[in-house]
Write a structure and sequence with these properties.
Oligomer: heterodimer
Structural class of chain B: mainly alpha
Distance between the termini of chain B: 41 Å
Largest sheet of chain A: none
Shape of chain B: globular
Number of helices of chain A: 13
Largest sheet of chain B: 2 strands, antiparallel
Number of helices of chain B: 20
Order of helices and strands of chain B: HHEEHHHHHHHHHHHHHHHHHH
Helix content of chain B: over 70%
Number of strands of chain B: 2
Amino acid sequence: MIAVAAIRLSDLFAVVMLFGVYSLLTAALFMDLDAVDVAFTEAAVGAGVTTVLMLSSLHLTKRWEVLPRRKPLLSLLVVGITGAALVYAVLDAPLLGDPTAPVHQHVTPRYIEQGAEEVGVPNLVTAVLASYRGYDTFGETVVIFTAGLAVLLLLGIHEDARMRPGVSAIGDQVVLRSVVKPLLPLILLFGLYVQFHGDFGAGGGFQAGVIFATAFVLYDLVFGDGSARSVVPPGWLHRLAALGVLIYGGVGVYSLLAGKAFLDYSALAADPVHGQHLGVLLVELGVGIAVFSVVLLIFYAFSGRSRRR
Amino acid sequence: MSLVDHLPVLVVIIPLMAGPLCVLVERPLAAWGLALAAAWLSFAAAVALAAQVNGTGVISYELGGWAPPWGIEYRIDTLGSYVLLIVTGIAALVMVAAKESVASEVPEAKVARFYAALMLAFAGLVGIVATGDAFNVFVFLEISSLASYALISMGRDRRALTSAFDYLVMGTIGATFILIGIGFLYMMTGTLNMQDLAARLPEVWDTRTVRAGFAFLTVGIGLKLAMFPLHLWLPNAYTYAPSVVTAFLAATATKVAVYVLLRFMLDIFGIDFALGRMPFEYILLPVGVIGILSASLVAIYQVEVKRLLAYSSIAQIGYMLLGIGLASTTGVTGAILHLFNHALMKGALFLALAAIAYRLRSTSLQDLTGLGRRMPWTMFAIVIGGLSLIGVPATVGFVSKWYLVLAALEQGLWPVALLILLGSLLAVVYVWKLVEAAYLTEPRDDVAVQEAPLSMLIPLWVLVIANVYFGVNTEVSVGLARQAAAVLTGGAG
């Protein structure tokens, strides 16, 4: 429903808001499917940061969509066929929650039964993400880094003389300020908690990085353009992002030099399980730093842009 | 484990780590040096790997120390090592030529980040080839695609932006389709490891889910490799991207997509499923033939040389699809050979164009007039590359087309063989346009043009000589291709 409404509306501002709602609903759906970590990510990235980024790019263009004259029949056809194929595929798929489904029979049992022992991390999702399939997560971190790099190549971050730290674009909102001010340390604290507690509860580097960046974005929005820049200068961010990737990769190279396979964390300490745990914490830190800097970098790139018109 | 045991992962992580390092060093020259070193080290690792695979057979590497299917496996077989050689070799040569070309086409402040993106695109492509894990393919596909979009958008022409955006939209749809396909396979088998998938799929062959997964993967990969009629993003992307990016992507990206197609369709699904139970050959043969003819025809009418060669690339992809569609060992041998050979031809041709763009700041046909006298080495390289594109004997193009024609005749499909020859005739027409402009018209007097710098001529001529060498001395390339094809087709045909 929300998605259809989002397509039909030509008021882009409303569309962005609807996307936020859509993401939040999706997150609720993920919760319903017991995928807490995914729901967390969807809520933080989809509903949170993406909305802000879309709004700031909206700031660059116009609010109203230009309606195309041509009816996009071909696109409708393609979408229809794709949807039909998806439905067709689901007809033979195992039922949701069926314990005999292949997904629950083959690889998963070992993750569940031995994950906590072998990796030393109670959160199974973290164990799979950061250790069993740690290389994929390394790849994902590089994807995020690449995204930041692409934005940097395309837009760049502009220093603007007209930037006025302390003067907000949305006016001097006393109420907002006094609400946001006490919230900020809490958000930062929560970010740190999610970062370093990801091995026990839901969370990890991805979510923590986003939450941490959100605090800065909020600060910048409420306390005036460029305020965040005096805390974290833009020139640092791409270096920080590269550093995050290098921390993750560095752990891999270290284990490689120590005579184990790439990203085999058991090389990090004398006791393999202890090494695993340490490795998970280190790579999550790398992910957190990379995600935080890329999100903030993209925000800077957009917000620096809007004032140049 | 000694360093030799780590070769499969070193091939990938050397350029992967070089990416962020390039961002950190920031100085253009240092970034270039770093990228150059990483590309050559990766190439050296690929050479060592190929020798190892040739000697001891398939190499498996357990990332994170977790045994597959729980962990991610790197798996290098003959086909994999062959494609790795091509990709890393081209990257190493392109990086030599990149210094001058990038300096003249990319603003200085962005050069270091440009090399970082180039390294990431390269690492992504290598990672796709090295991995033995279906989801890992998707992750590295994302790395290489995102980096390529950024690279294409760096072209001097502002139309580079819209062509990068078109590619982004099409590429993202393709990647999503691939992800959906992999998801369906996981749903039915509970595994992501390729070998494990291949072993477990036959049980569930007759389900709609697997069939739909097959369809999604075919379309998704088709978008990535610019299979006709999903090729619309390619001409603009190749035309407006910076010259070295075009040379690199044209010689590697679509080749890796062809590799992914071979891997998924013939290795994971297996030839019995792809061709026996699904109408794979009835899709690939016509798509290949129509692709060859239509793209060659369009190429003839182009006035921008980069675009002309881009359409020719689509036609060449048609040849590869045709070879796979013929579904015999000879056909697949032809396809793999053409993959290798086309990388050599297009690598050489687009590097030559990079040299021309460096001197002339343009690559349109009318600016080529009389260039045979002004830039004799560059133009002669284009002539040889063009001859190879046509498929003249003693060039690599002849060898692969020979195998394709042979495969078509083996199955009594003589109309297909005729169409392959017709495609070559069309290639004669568009290559002749280049020759005519360069040699048979008077040079323009208003501009003084010199030969390209040595740093560009040397990698260019290495590729040109490879075009001739592998055209005459076919033992190595044909031997490896045949070996890989025999494994894929299970000796059938």
